[in-house]
Amino acid sequence: MDTKAPNKDHRTTPQYALYQRENFWKSNEGEVPPFSTGNMPCDSIFILRNQTDLAPDPGDLEELAKEKLTQGGWYYASSNAGQSYTHTQNRQAFYRHRIIPRMLVDTNTRDTRAEIFGHKVSAPIGFAPIGINKIYHPSGELPVAKVAKELNLPYCLSTAGSQPIEDVGAANGQGPRFFQLYMPHDDELTISLLKRAHNSGFTACILTVDTWQLGWRHNDVHTSNYAFYHGIGADLGLSDPVFQKRLAEDGIDPKKQPNEAGAKWIDNVWHGRAHSWEKMPWLIKTWKEISGGKPFCLKGIQDVRDAQKAVEIGCDGIVVSNHAGRQVDGAIASLDALEKIVKGRCSDLEIWDF
């Protein structure tokens, strides 16, 4: 990439091709990139300690992650529902779909900018909601939210996040950010979470509908690997005034009984009692009133009929997702579901794929 290429004068977003050039140049300064980006599984988290851990082959990244993470951290990042058939379908769907490049198209004024719910972002990608970041680093979601702002990419905070909503909002600064809701059956608690999200600058509510209870993830179950039950990661809930009342009503002191407090929090979120379409008008109306009409979306949609139902009830968007295969084993691949939903002409929605 020529650093003087005129494309840089026409675009409003970073010239990402220069990052490749920088990496090719690094060896002249006695450096190499800290890790390879090849062959990285799309639904796992990798933390490498330093650049001496550089994998000689991209496929070794997974083994390095297993080595560096705690057993619990590795299991939580890598475990899928059942025998991982849905996860396998996700991978195979990307192998089946192919790009047909077109040549000699004028790309000299290219720009990767995109717009989502009125936010102008630097690329059509974003940070999906991931829970319990504290099991990977004590700062949890805070540095992730900060980097999202620096990159001008949308950030989504999970209700299962391990930092208070207000702190994550502050870390994200003026970045575009959305709040992913796992909805309790306690309406007062739901309203409190939504108010906190709105007051902290989160500009859309995304309800996840495929995780009213956890899928059966063999390694997590076998090792009792549930951070919330062991006093880790419930800070988002423990900082909520309504939930603090619930703890007091049950006589639970979160400082003296962190395990019990964490268990009560997550039992309110992944509670084993499914919501239905009948509850959605109340939730949409509540969020719209709190936020002044900001967007509401459903995450976890995989069927054309559900996408069409989302349009009927007034959703502003959907996330086509099977939770990376972590919830229902044997399900359709997200990419295949996305194709069917788009062909189903649910054109009144913003549609994303995670």
TrEMBL record:
Domain of life: Eukaryota
KW Flavoprotein (keyword) present: yes
Binding site for FMN: 129-131, 158, 180, 208, 299, 321
Cofactor annotation: FMN
Single annotated GO MF: FMN binding
Active-site residues, record numbering mapped to chain: 323 (proton acceptor)
Positions contributing to glyoxylate binding: 76, 182, 217, 323, 326
Keywords assigned by UniProt, alphabetized: Flavoprotein, FMN, Oxidoreductase
Xref: InterPro entries: Aldolase_TIM (IPR013785), Alpha-hydoxy_acid_DH_FMN (IPR012133), FMN-dep_DH (IPR000262), FMN_HAD (IPR037396)
Sequence ranges assigned to domain FMN hydroxy acid dehydrogenase in this UniProt record: 50-354
Family matches, as Pfam families: FMN_dh (PF01070)
Family membership noted in the UniProt record: Belongs to the FMN-dependent alpha-hydroxy acid dehydrogenase family.
PANTHER family hit by this protein: L-LACTATE DEHYDROGENASE (AFU_ORTHOLOGUE AFUA_4G07050) (PTHR10578:SF75), S -2-HYDROXY-ACID OXIDASE-RELATED (PTHR10578)
Record-given protein name: FMN-linked oxidoreductase
